């Protein structure tokens, strides 16, 4: 008689995976900045009202971390409020990404800056949406 040993499926460590996702998005955006600014020589300037501001690596890191943590917080809240958190969060995150593109499209100073800023938003958004969505309760 053959005995089967039950396998234990480890519950994924959501907190760790979400934290890694936020850090991965931040690293990806920062890498994009490095490739565009010091390597390719793009002058990365965004216009806010009547002021032009240089987009620094600190700004890229801080804004990506804040976006990632806000996405994480919203996902955690939705998981407590609804059984369809994954779907609702994905739709909201996609809409937030689309709205976030209005900033660089209207505020990038020059074609290269605009293209770079859009790319940074898309890279950070893609990593955050796919990574955080993967951790959502089903």
Automatic annotation (TrEMBL):
Membrane-spanning residues: 20-46, 58-78, 87-106, 112-132
UniProt xrefs under InterPro entries: DUF6069
Keywords: Membrane, Transmembrane, Transmembrane helix
Organism: Micromonospora aurantiaca (nom. illeg.)
Protein name per its UniProtKB record: Uncharacterized protein
């Amino acid at each position: 008689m053959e005995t089967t040993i039950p396998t234990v499926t480890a519950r994924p460590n959501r907190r760790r995976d979400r934290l890694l996702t936020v850090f991965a998005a931040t690293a990806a955006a920062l890498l994009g900045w490095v490739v565009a600014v010091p390597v390719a020589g793009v002058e990365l300037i965004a216009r806010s009202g009547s002021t032009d501001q240089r987009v620094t690596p600190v700004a890229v890191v801080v804004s990506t971390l804040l976006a990632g943590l806000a996405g994480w917080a919203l996902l955690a809240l939705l998981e407590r409020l609804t059984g369809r958190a994954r779907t609702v969060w994905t739709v909201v995150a996609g809409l937030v990404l689309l709205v976030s593109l209005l900033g660089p499209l209207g505020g990038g100073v020059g074609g290269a800056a605009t293209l770079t800023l859009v790319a940074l938003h898309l890279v950070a958004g893609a990593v955050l949406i796919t990574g955080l969505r993967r951790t959502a309760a089903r």
